[in-house]
UniProtKB/TrEMBL annotation:
UniProt keyword annotation of Nucleotide-binding present: yes
InterPro entries: Rossmann-like_a/b/a_fold (IPR014729), Universal_stress_UspA (IPR006015), UspA (IPR006016)
Pfam family, one: Usp
Residue ranges constituting the UspA domain according to the UniProt record: 7-147, 159-295
Record protein name field: Universal stress protein
GO molecular function, one term: ATP binding
Domain of life: Bacteria
Keywords assigned by UniProt, alphabetized: ATP-binding, Nucleotide-binding
Protein family according to the UniProt entry: Belongs to the universal stress protein A family.
Transmembrane segments: none
């Protein structure tokens, strides 16, 4: 069987309910992108068996049981995906290798990688450990982390995008506008600023009235950054939010009523270390809607 031409949306699954949520969300996304869905099960346990004797095959019963279980999980994920998006073409695959290496390799031939927020088996700890960080740092396409069932998301809810004060925002804004346009949803653009220093410095900063000046300057920056995007996407309604806040807090507040949050793979300024430090962990653990990392 030949592989379809367009790059697929690829979802990594295991036996967890979170993986099924991810598969359903990925199926709908594949339909939006007019492509097919590639469902991958990562067989890490096969590599973990007798690591000191890598050439010795596992017992036949073990191999057969693992293969049967993988097919059960893949079949269920396929059924759930097709129920969520009947028009989608779904193909299932078993890959052998550690989760990070497999996902990074898969990302080279995908237009979007999708994972759940919690995993079992080959994807255990996918989002909270090194695998998610590796995929975000080294993946070759955007990555989506799905934290809740797609049926819980309002189709008329906005897409939210986090924007910092540095270069390289075109990729993030393009991903966000495309996502909003595909969903016929409004877009909320969030930009934050925060003074650094001690509590005394904070009081001094605001006592001198510099906060209002900074707020005005940041609003001007965002207005200039957004200039021209309305012409590119005339059907997307845009609301700009400039918040005196920490990035994660501002995004989480806006995400409460959103269907998707979009951020860059790395941030500077207000979004420093977005997916490498504390902000990323807060978004991954607490974002009430799917998170899309634009690369």
């Amino acid at each position: 069987m030949t592989t379809p031409g367009p790059k697929p949306v690829t979802v990594g699954i295991d036996g967890s309910s979170s993986a099924l949520d991810a598969a359903c969300w990925a199926a709908a996304e594949a339909v939006r992108r007019n492509t097919w869905l590639r469902v991958v099960f990562c067989d890490v346990l096969a590599q973990m068996y007798l690591p000191d004797l890598p050439t010795m095959p596992p017992p036949q019963t073990y191999s057969e049981a693992l293969a049967r279980q993988a097919q059960v999980w893949l079949h269920r994920a396929k059924e759930e995906a097709q129920a969520a998006a009947p028009a989608v073409e779904v193909r299932t695959f078993v890959r052998t290798g550690d989760a990070a290496s497999v996902l990074i390799e898969e990302s080279r031939k995908a237009q979007l990688m999708v994972v759940g927020s919690r995993g079992l088996g080959g994807f255990t700890g996918l989002v909270v450990g090194s695998v998610a960080v590796a995929l975000c740092a080294h993946g070759q396409c955007p990555v989506a982390v799905v934290r809740r069932p797609a049926t819980d998301l309002r189709p008329d809810a906005p897409v939210v995008v986090g924007l910092d004060a540095r270069d390289g925002q075109e990729l993030v804004l393009t991903a966000a506008f495309d996502a909003a346009a595909m969903r016929n949803a409004p877009l909320v653009v969030v930009h934050t600023w925060h003074e650094a220093g001690s509590e005394q410095a904070w009081y001094s900063f605001h006592a001198e009235g510099r906060g209002a000046a900074v707020q005005a300057e940041e609003e001007r920056f965002l207005a200039e950054t957004m200039a021209g995007w309305g012409d590119k996407y005339p059907d997307v309604a845009v609301r700009r939010v400039v918040a005196h806040s920490r990035p994660a807090r501002a995004l989480l507040e806006q995400a409460e009523h959103a269907q998707l949050v979009v951020v860059g793979a790395r941030g500077r300024g207000g979004f420093t270390g977005l997916l490498l430090g504390s902000t990323s962990q807060q978004l991954v653990h607490h974002a009430p809607c799917p998170l899309l990392v634009a690369r």
